[in-house]
Write a structure and sequence with these properties.
2 copies of one chain form a homodimer. By secondary structure, chain A is mostly helical. Chain A has 10 helices and no strands. Chain A has 2 domains: 43 residues, Homeodomain-like (Arc Repressor Mutant, subunit A, Orthogonal Bundle); 135 residues, Tetracycline Repressor, domain 2. Helices cover 70% and strands 0% of the residues of chain A. The longest helix of chain A has 25 residues. Chain A is elongated. Chains A and B meet through helix 8, helix 9 and helix 10 of A and helix 8, helix 9 and helix 10 of B. Chain A binds a DNA duplex (30 and 30 nucleotides) through helix 3.
Chain lengths: 205, 205
DNA sequence: ATTGTGACCAAATACGTTATTAGTCACAGT
DNA sequence: ACTGTGACTAATAACGTATTTGGTCACAAT
């Protein structure tokens, strides 16, 4: 076991720099095409026409590049989810959209960019910062929905908000967490719908 | 990928036979001590004083022996759970005991017999018959509790019983499935309690 | 101060070879 | 029919080695 705790971003040098972007772009393509393991840092260097050493002026490690790509991926998942939620009519609808979209977006990633999905799996099992930030943002979004539902009387108000938010997130984890989701694929989409139903029943005032 | 579908029991020869028991006993000890992979069929043969070939009169494969041991393990988990449930006062209490016990029993297995737990993990990820049977029995037990709760007015009756049973099981999966549970350890016992709370709220009439 | 690199090293990985192991079968004794 | 085995093979794992890879650093150019 290497990195028991949470790992940090680990970037270096100027945050805004065309070379940093080039690295990230090359990494996105290479990782998606050949996978994280089979892409070497020298590959990325060759791709952008610089030396390998120069890459390390912008990233502390290969994993840091992987984290950047992972952050992009899960960022995309979050954006899709937020968009879908924003189109919801009421809190109930938003919660349904939340659960449905985060799952379907993740599944889509799995099928369209399997190699990138593998990075997300690795990131999740090793507790990379990108994934932790992602789950926190998701939980914030979920809490927003819950607040709205509580305010307009759709949801019950007795249970502490924190507990409600956490327990819903745990219950939905098999359909959110990339590691779990892989193992829940054969149950989709019914299981996800049914658990969402259970969650909504638990929120009834 | 080897065994995509569900694998069957795969025993051979007489079902009741002292040698079969000897094999299973030896396997239980060796697997627990050295692990499944590092125990060879010849080891088991030597342990019981017969030749390796004779073992294959009783089991189709090494995996079949592993399945027998795995069946014992999860059988033990189920028995503990059932016992705890039977001591419950009402359906609500039984449901709480159900969730708490299946989790704590599994965690205990993880800490006291890590090597056997690894077999269970392997069995679960490869969908061995023993684990499938286990989850079915657990769901049957859960359904019993739900029926009792519905009959005596503790639980709501609108949602189809099947759906309720499945959705609860899915929601509790991170605390039941050995593969998931490993990844939920740092959340215990709070997360489990809180999800159980959510489940009970969803069952409110 | 910023941009950029070749040379270098320890650690990890790929690879070819050897040694084990799972599983079978023909055969023997009762 | 039942109990039991040694000898055999194909597949897998263990092992040592050669190569690659992640990462650093001193140094050069602008």
């Amino acid at each position: 076991m290497k990195n028991q705790g949470t790992s940090k971003a680990a970037t270096r040098g100027p945050a805004e720099h065309s070379v940093r972007d080039q690295i990230v772009n090359a990494a996105r393509e290479c990782f998606a095409h050949y996978g994280y393991d089979k892409t070497t840092v020298s590959d990325l260097a060759r791709e952008i026409g610089f030396s390998k050493a120069y890459i390390y002026r912008f990233f502390e490690s290969k994993q840091a590049i992987g984290e950047a790509i992972c952050a992009e991926c899960v960022g995309g998942l979050f954006d899709q989810t937020r968009e879908a939620v924003d189109e919801g009519q009421d809190a109930t609808d938003k919660l349904r959209r939340f659960a449905r979209t985060v799952t379907s977006a993740t599944v889509e990633l799995l099928f369209t960019d399997r190699k990138l999905y593998e990075i997300a799996v690795h990131a999740s099992s090793e507790n990379w910062e990108a994934v932790q930030a992602y789950t926190e943002r998701l939980q914030d979004l979920l809490e927003e929905i819950l607040k709205e539902g509580r305010e307009n009387g759709e949801f019950e108000r007795k249970t502490p908000l924190d507990e409600t938010r956490r327990s819903i997130f745990y219950a939905l984890k098999p359909f959110i967490d990339p590691v779990f989701l892989e193992r829940s694929l054969d149950l989709l989409p019914d299981a996800q719908t049914e658990v969402t139903g259970l969650v909504l029943r638990s929120l009834a005032p």
